[in-house]
Each structure stands twice: as C-alpha cells, then as structure tokens.
Fold these 2 entries.
Entry 1:
Amino acid sequence: MYLGNLVEVIHGRELLAKAVHPYTKALMDSIFDINMDFSNPIESINGETPSPLDLPEGCPFQGRCPHCMDICKKENPALIEIETDHNVACHLFKKSKG
Ligand code: SF4
C-alpha cells in the first residue's frame, strides 16, 4: 500500500522474484541484511511523500516514481490482474490476455 492505496497484491513467497510496481520494488531494494554486500549503493526513494489529506490528481506515487509519465499525473491507475494472483495498479502494466 502507498498512502492508503493498494499498489500491488502478490503472494509473499513471490515478492522478491516477481514484484513489478515501482514502489514495491523500491521497498524491496531498501531491505537491509547483515550479510549484504555493503560495497553496493543503498537506494533511497527520491522525492517527498505528499500529504494523505492532499493527494495529487493521478497516481499517488507520481512525485517519487522514476517512470512517471503524463498519464500518471491525470489518472490514478486501477488495480488490474497482470497474471494469476498478481495484481498491480500502475500505468506501466496492462491487463494480460486470457
Ligand atoms: S502509475 Fe506512473 S507514477 Fe504511478 S507507479 Fe506507475 S509509472 Fe509510476
């Protein structure tokens, strides 16, 4: 969830391998592990979190997303199924066929 919006629904066991939403992926990239390679840079999520009381029109993650497009500033993406038991709300993804 991001600011009260469901952005991705996926089984926990598939999270690391199959998560696709930019926010989910950014969260996965921010996990610390004592066995991690600390020579690799630790990624942070750029931008400011908007007030939940004054969300922008469109996608609530737009101000922090490196993939933001024009449509993201106009339409809040609907949660769609991109594969069985995997739903995402992001304009980068279209509903799978069949
Ligand atoms: S809808 Fe647009 S701004 Fe929102 S997460 Fe997807 S690409 Fe980023």
Entry 2:
Amino acid sequence: MARRTERIALNAPTPGVDRHLTVHRYGAPGARPKAYLQAALHADEWPGLMALHHLAPLLDAAAAAGEVVGEVVVAPYANPLGMDHRIGGVVSGRYAYDGSGNTNRNWPDLAPAVAARLNGPLSGDAAADVERVRGVLREAAADLPERTPMMQLRKILTQLSADADHVLDLHCDGEAEAHLYANITGEERARALAEEMGIEIVMLEEEAGGGAFDTAPVQFWRRLAEVGVEGAEALGAPCFGTTVELRGKADVSDDLGAADAAGLLRYLVRVGVLAEAARDRVGPAPDAAVETYRLDAVDTVNAPAAGLIAYQRPLGARVSAGDVVAVLIDPAAEPGQDRTEVRTQQTGRLFTYNEHRLVQPGDRIVKVAGTEPLSYRKLGALLED
Ligand SMILES: [Zn+2]
C-alpha cells in the first residue's frame, strides 16, 4: 500500500492566512504495531525535520515493496504555529506566544476521561482489553477542546499518536551529544532504538513530571489503574514513548539526517513495524556503546550569575564531582575578579552545552549524566522548562 498524505487544516490565526499540518501514513489503517514519529514540536529544533526528510523516501520504497507490516504515521513538522514565532529574525519556537507555555509540557492525561467512558472493569483478556481501551482513547482524544489554534494543534497531535505502540518525538538540545529520554518501562525498547541509531546515552525515568508529549501516552496506561479501572494494572506498558535529542540545534545536515533516518528505519524493522527485508535499504547500525542513566541522576548545572561562558571541558568528557566544567566571565567586574569557576556535582559524562555563550542567572550551562542520586533532583519535577 502506497503512502497516503493528509493535509489537515488548522484554524487560521488571522484573516488571509491558511495553515495546515501534513501527515504521511504508511500501512493498513489499524495494523499493528503502530509507530508515530514527529519532528520540531519545539519549532526551533530542526535536526528532526532533516531526519524525517530522509526517512520519507525510505518509507516510500518500503511501502512500494510491501514491507510495511504495521502502521507508520509521520508528522514531518509538528508545530507550524511555532515555526512562525520569530523575533528579530530568530525563531524562538519553544514557548507558545498565546501564553500556553512550553509546547512540550502539559500534554493531556486522558485516563480519567477513558475511565469514565469504560464505566466498568476490563475483561481480563489483555490483548482484547488493550484494543478496547485504545478505541476509547481515540474517542476521548476526539473530545479534547480545540478552542484556540494551539489547543487545536495539541488535539490533532494527540489524536495521531495516543493509540500508538511507539511514539518517537524528535527534538534536540542546545549543543549536545545525541541522547534519548524514556520511561523506565520502555528500557528495552529505548536501548534498541539507541543501538540502531548509534546513540550512546539513554536517560530513564519513572516519573519525569511536566507532561512531555512522549510521556503522556506512556503514563496513560499506568494512570488508568490509578483512576480506578479494574484490571488495568495487568495491561503492562503497551506504549513506548521517547524524546530523541538529535544533538544540538546547529547539527542539521544531509549526512546527519540520512544517518538518523537509517537508524529510525532499522528500529522500525527491529520492533516489527517493517518487515526484515526493509533493513537492506540502509547500512548496518554504527557501533555504539549504549550507556543508561537515571534522569534523576543528571546534574543540570545552572549559571549562578549573568556572564559569558568559557567551557573548560569538551562535550563527551568524563568528569568527576567537583570538577570545573565552565568559567563564567563578568565583563563588569574588576580584572582579576571577573572569572567564576562553575563545578559539577556529578561524576559522569558531560553531554550538553548551552548554545548561547552569554547567559542569565539560572540558565542551564551543562548537563552531566551520572549514577549517584542528587538530592536536589525530585521525581515528578525532573524537566526544566
Ligand atoms: Zn525540544
């Protein structure tokens, strides 16, 4: 079955403006497993746009050869509202201009609405129950409010993804090594994705909090039991969701996009969305020594004051607690008193930089992934805005 491309109309923000979302679909509707991929939910993060650009012809060829076993839904750009958010030539992209905040936070918890619709216990046949719950989940998603343009966009993206087996949300950091975030229930799939993509850093969490796009459809299944649906705890974790951080904002190139697309394709084969034969369309996975870390053991080192950053250790460096990772320069201070050392509290791998070198107090300077729990990192509040 060939690709079907939908053009989903979005509400016009002003008279004379026509906005839409493009969605590519592969495989028979309803076939399993279903994978959903999107890029640039944070509209200022573009490596995912390049990856999905290179994935499209691979999926087209796989579809033409009858290699799509399940269903693949691709939103090649997830946030056309944010892409238009420019100030002085810079796409800000992360926060909605309508006051609704970070676009990758506060995705809806549909468990209460689904529980109300189920109105009774599940059957005890896990496969049939998952199928039934997914049907009700689609109804609940279709009932989400769409009063504003951003609410409408959130509703559409939820409808596309809520019932998927695999939700891959492609983002990037400021400057970074590639890494990914996933719930601990998805550890095996997260490692598989990292291996296929050549990503060495996997961050796992029980409850990140904040309602990130990829966590909502994962947490839904756990929440179902919490809101009192009898038998829901037996369903396990039918959805794997992940935020894939494709390095830094400037890491946009054909070479990187093609490599990322190949990795995504290999993952889709590995989890049975595509037939094994599709693997021949790309080369083998690069060698990657995948390391898993707990998200609550990531030291997010923030700027203690305003200033200019001079990094002291390269991305990927192995650092120890107490090491100086950066120097903050205050151009207003007396010479000799104008350099402040900034240290990490963690022993581990330094994997992100801030892409800006002039920072304000509280701006994140680096992240260090380690293994020792850090007292200031709290479950349920692990994502910075
Ligand atoms: Zn992002």
